[in-house]
Amino acid sequence: MSELFASGEKCYGVPPRFDPEDGTAIAEPPGSGYGYWAGAPSAAFDRSSGRFYVYYRVRHPLTKGRGGECRIAAGEPGGRFEAVWSASKDAFGANSIEKGCLIRDPAGPWRLYLSYEVGRAYDRNPPTWRIDLLEADSPDQFDPATARPVIDAPMYGFTFVKDPTVIVVGGEYHVYTSVGLPEQHLPADADGVIQTRGRGWAALHRSHDGVNFPTARIVMEPRQSGWDAFNVRITSVCRLPPVWLAFYDGATHRADSYDEFCGQAVSEDLVNFRRLSVNAPWIRSPHASGSIRYLDALPVDDTLHYFYEYTRPDRSHELRHSAVPLARPSAPAQR
């Protein structure tokens, strides 16, 4: 992969902008209107076949079943995507399927880290969101019956853990999750007024094998004020030399929980992230709430592929893909 932008321009590690309107729809929502979504993508590129595999979930409104199904679609760059695998929430004994992360282990097998809301109490733990691991030789062969819990909220004292974003660096697994912290409210002031606190913090879990995650640490939290003051969720981390770039979802208040917005943060060590989108989200849909969320950025050769959940005029969300060159084209020679 080439360096982003010519060094003579004094710009390094800057991701190219894209127009969400120009993206190609990969998956349609199951209905029209608020609460119908196809999104929460996680993409991987299989160089041997030249195809992308994209995990996504299909969701209905809260009153009609919530996240009822997850799928994996396959397609070539610029071509059509077709579902090659699917599973229902009943296959996992879940109340709702959430974001997952598809990745190929360096040793060979494919892995799907899947978060969902557990349908009932288990192992003396209360029913809440957790993350399971599925493994298979190819993305169309995952068997829900083999899912193993690997990251669970009570392990760390969280109230929930969900929405994994997984990368492998130097053979070590880094899993970023959205977590809840207990008793996150501010004490009443002198007038007895209680201030609200955020809902979601971003945590980092590390593992040498991608199965045992003994520790967690908070790496990003809601701000005291601003467009991302209620919730932060890291949805993608990619290496754009010389930095690590993270895309994250943010919400201003509880009403934004289903229409978050996309921001950027940068890091040198994958632990300490500095927000770049301080005053406003990085990108928005021109329709309805303006939400673009769950953005997954995947560099392949000299192209950055964006997969994102996009708000349509009817307030439903569809899954889209945009491809943008990483390096600016050279200017024509002067004659």
**CATH class call:** Mainly Beta
Reported by name, the CATH topology is Tachylectin-2, Chain A
**Portion in strands:** over 45%
Written as H for each helix and E for each strand, in order along the chain, the element string is: EEEEEEEEEEEEEEEEEEEE
**CATH level-four homologous superfamily name:** Glycosyl hydrolase domain, family 43
Characterize the overall form.
Answer: globular
| Rg, nearest Å | 20 Å
What profile does the largest beta sheet have? 4 strands, antiparallel
Q: Give unreliable regions as ranges.
A: 330-335
**Total number of helices:** 0
Number of domains as seen in the coordinates: 1
Give me the secondary-structure category: mainly beta
* CATH architecture designation: 5 Propeller
- Span between termini: 30 Å
- How many beta-strand runs? 20
Mean pLDDT over the full residue set? 92
Which strand order spans the largest sheet, edge to edge or round the barrel?
Answer: 1-20-19-18
What's the gist of this structure?
This protein is mostly beta strands. The chain is 0% helix and 47% strand.
Fold and architecture overview:
With 335 residues, the protein is mainly β. The protein has one domain (7-186, 195-325): Tachylectin-2, Chain A (5 Propeller). The chain is built from no helices and 20 strands. The strands form 5 sheets. A 4-stranded antiparallel β-sheet has the order 1-20-19-18, with no helix packed on it. A 4-stranded antiparallel β-sheet has the order 2-3-4-5, with no helix packed on it. It has a 4-stranded antiparallel β-sheet with strand order 6-7-8-9, with no helix packed on it. A hairpin with a 5-residue loop joins β19 (303-311) and β20. The protein is globular, with a radius of gyration of 20 Å. It starts with 23 loop residues before the first strand and ends in a 10-residue tail after the last strand.
